[in-house]
Design a protein that fits this description.
397 residues, alpha/beta, Rossmann fold, 7-stranded mixed β-sheet, 4-stranded mixed β-sheet, 18 strands, 41% helix
Amino acid sequence: MSTRRTVVQALAAAPAALAFPSLVRAQSAPVRVGYAIARTGPWTTGAQVSQEPNYLLWAEQQNAAGGLNVKGTKRPIELISSDDQSNIETCVRTYEKLMGSDKVDLVLPPWGSNANFAVAPLANRFGYPFLAPTALSRRLIEMKLPYFFLMLQQPKPMMDALVDMLKASGAKSAAVIYVDDLFGLENYAALKVALAGSGISLVEDKSYPLGVKDLSPVLRSMKDKNPDAFIGLTYPPDTILASKQAKEVGFNPKFFYASVGTAFQLYRNVMQAGAEGVLGMGSWNGKTSAGAKAYFDAHVKKFGAAKEPDRWASGAAWASLEILTAAVAKVGLDRKAIRDYVAGGEHNTILGKIKFAGSENVGTPGTVSQWQRGEFEVVWPKANATAPLVPQKPAWV
């Protein structure tokens, strides 16, 4: 397993500081920031869209400004990273080494609910604050790990927002598919609770295994039942598979919702005009705030127009780095003090104000977004909307 070390040299010390070389050396020692991330294997699409590009952009921006502000002292960031190969055991071993023997100054989280679920107890044991931008799990909140913070809106607020939108738009029936893992099971359970008493009947629900290659039989069955809404609690490859196969079998309900990956530029590129009107998990775009627009532009400048940030977890990843940066500027690299800063305050981010109750982000409401004319617009709730909901998906094209 290869490890990648990336460091941009700090700005040259001022001439007046040359009389104090030992002090300069101490102050300019790199801040060692470690993480494992998928660069190969099935997690790669999500990790390389939503997460690692933000880590690289953050380090570059901080170093270009003279380094990370550590309680008033600028120090360059050194990233110590490796490919977790989309493998839980590799991921756990890597973080154990980073925190246990390497004793890096800070850690950044891996991608996905399953990896974070495996690593969260380690972070707590070693006392490293984790601000996880791609984990959805009520179980992680219930574990009450004081060093672990989840940036994304969790299953209940996300499913509540979806059902609230469907109910307000007159939907009476829905069909659901969900991936048979932590993400799918927890979101499905939250959806069932949200549907209870909503007046929306569940006409069919099916689980499917990770790595599924064909969803057309269940989509045909759902088409025969003619629901107002299709809800896919899906990962990026399955989100695209379900959309392409729904088009193939002519399944085009009023509301077509798929989960992780719908917010990706990749989805728009693959589906082209067929993306129009598709709903999914999203929480921001360049219209959300001036900071969001600046982040979007900086990301595109560094990685190119072919690799835009996604309109959901990328924003959460950047917000997590904003919070971490502010914490280190205020309290330095004392990890307990960083943890207390994160847990105890309200934080200004590109997504708006974020605060935590235990491990949960309770500042960001559940949201629904929709592809409209090439942008993934936030459409629900109306207070967060960047565009009005289009309540009838057009025909697939």
